[in-house]
Amino acid sequence: MQAHEIAMAAPTVRMDDPVSKAVQLMAVNRLPGLVVVDEADRPAAVLPGTQVLRMAIPESYQDDSALVHTVDEVHADLFWHGPGKLSVRDCLPDPVAKPATVAPEATLLEIATKMAKKRSPLVAVVDRDGKLTGAVTLERLLISLAVAGPSD
């Protein structure tokens, strides 16, 4: 199998989009992250959902996990309102890491290697001009590997 056979038409965001838009797209489309594109629709970054969570959780709780047990359930559910004013750019590391990309002809092994090396929940599939044509999520890759693998 090749990347173009398992890639999905993935929604994208731009650096200046609100992170709330990114979260909504991830939730509605059940995605582990999003491809961030530039003005020419070329992948500029991958925004993992886990990175958005890191930005939403106050640093004091990340530094001392015992503090999380001191917050009651009602208030603990409100932490999510914190990133409301953040942009996608705010949730990415500085400098922004080059996104994981593959050609449409990439094999499952190439996709898996790129995903593992970049520790990315998805890989952007790009054409010869570097424009986004789709994305392969970890879930789609694992399903494809299971289907392509030897049967028991």
TrEMBL record:
Alphabetical list of SMART domains matching this protein: CBS
Record's keyword terms, sorted: CBS domain
Gene3D superfamilies registered for this protein in UniProt: CBS-domain
One of the Pfam families matching this protein, by short name: CBS
InterPro entries found in the cross-reference section: CBS_dom, CBS_dom_sf, Diverse_CBS-Domain
Domain CBS: 1-65, 93-152
Name by which UniProt lists this protein: Putative signal transduction protein with Cystathionine beta-synthase domains [Nocardia brasiliensis ATCC]
Species for this entry: Mycobacterium shimoidei
Organism lineage: Bacteria, Bacillati, Actinomycetota, Actinomycetes, Mycobacteriales
